[in-house]
Design a protein that fits this description.
Blueprint (H helix, E strand, L loop, with lengths): L10 E5 L1 H7 L3 H16 L3 E9 L7 E10 L5 E10 L10 E8 L6 E6 L1 H19 L6 E5 L5 H11 L4 E5 L3 H15 L4 E2 L3 H5 L4 E4 L20 E4 L16 E4 L13 H5 L10 E2 H5 L13 E4 L4 H18 L3 E4 L2
Parallel strand pairs: 1-6, 7-8, 7-10, 8-9, 10-11, 11-14, 12-13, 12-14
Antiparallel strand pairs: 1-15, 2-3, 3-4, 4-5, 5-6
Helix pairs in contact: 2-3, 2-9, 3-4, 3-9, 4-5
Length: about 350
């Protein structure tokens, strides 16, 4: 066996939270990186494994998500992201999710980078929501109704508003202080009015785009199917389901980011899959297939469409790769000797 001194050195690029912020990634840069990765997925130039969950011990309101995948082409990286999802973190002023992305060279297996993925998780989730709407929402949507105010919620609204000129943006959260602070941040950053509602119904009823990003501790059917107007796009992706079982009955199309992650423990449509209401045969498409032009997206104004995204390791890898490239150009981050 050769000693480390006689083999080529291996270095890790390291980006922490402050490095990520210093990069100043724009909305367009985020969307472009994620859309490119979706297109590659649709063309079969990627490999993705269903996420895994680690639940540390009883009595703790949280778990770890482990996501794994590979992207070819110019990116040519394998990656693993581990995200700690702990819903009570807000009580100590912490984010509800901490994430770490590790990138690897797929040709020899050596690690390439360690990147703070807390911000990446929020950005790429918002980008998937927005890109789903780009291909599946009604033309010129007027009203956005958004449930949830923590974690990925900010990037959902910000990137949707980057793509669409809404007449009204409604938000609601179970904690008044949370939704007010959320609305104020959006008003300041987006320069537009944000409507804070007092309940789910007034937030979602008759909205053109409905996004459910709630943080429930157990499944509760708080989003009523009767509130969804014909022709709307509904995007539920909370860890714990907040939708009724008959929601899929009114849908003309159901789209996912990755059918391989339809099964498991958590997810907005968990019971729908378990009861056979959503199957591989009834799924219209994966979003990547639509972005790549393999399958159609929205085909008429009358279609009511549901987009359920579980989160793609490919999105993390693509955004992490793009951030590394910009960091090298800007001289941001650190380089660590690994081997």
């Amino acid at each position: 066996m050769s000693s480390p001194a006689s083999t080529p050195p291996v270095y890790l690029d390291y980006l922490n939270r402050f490095d990520i912020e210093a990069l100043g990634f724009t909305d367009a840069e985020i969307l472009s990186a994620i859309e490119d990765s979706l297109r590659m997925q649709g063309k079969g130039e990627t490999s993705i494994e269903p996420r895994m969950h680690i639940r540390p011990r009883a009595g703790v309101e949280g778990h770890f998500n482990v996501l794994r995948g590979w992207i070819g082409g110019e990116i040519d990286s394998a990656g693993t992201k581990v995200v700690g999802d702990f819903v009570d973190n807000y009580k100590s002023g912490r984010p509800s999710e901490y994430g770490l992305l590790t990138l690897f060279d797929p040709r020899m297996g050596a690690p390439k980078a360690l990147i703070d993925a807390t911000g990446i998780t929020e950005m790429r989730t918002g980008a998937i929501t927005a890109l789903g709407a780009k291909y599946l929402a009604p033309e010129k949507p007027k009203v956005l109704g958004h449930i949830g105010a923590r974690g990925t919620a900010y990037w959902n609204v910000r990137l949707l508003c980057h793509l669409f000129d809404f007449e009204e943006v409604r938000v609601h959260s179970r904690r008044p202080e949370s939704q007010e602070a959320f609305a104020e941040q959006l008003r300041a950053d987006l320069g537009r009015e944000i409507t804070v509602t007092n309940d789910w119904k007034s937030c979602l009823q008759d909205a053109d785009i409905v996004v459910e990003a709630s943080r429930l501790s157990e499944p509760q059917p708080l989003l009523k199917t009767e509130w969804i107007k014909p022709g709307a796009l509904v995007v539920p992706y909370g860890t714990m389901s907040a939708v009724e079982l008959n929601l899929t009955d009114i849908m003309d199309k159901v789209v996912m980011d990755d059918w391989g992650q339809a099964h498991g423990v958590f997810g907005a449509l968990r019971e729908h899959v378990d009861q056979g209401k959503l199957t591989a045969e009834t799924l219209h498409a994966e979003l990547g297939q639509i972005v790549a032009g393999v399958k159609p997206g929205r085909e008429s104004a009358e279609e009511t469409i549901l987009f359920w995204h579980r989160g793609l390791s490919l999105s993390d890898i693509a955004l992490g790769h793009a951030m590394l490239a910009k960091a090298k150009d800007m001289g941001v981050g650190q380089r660590l000797r690994f081997y």
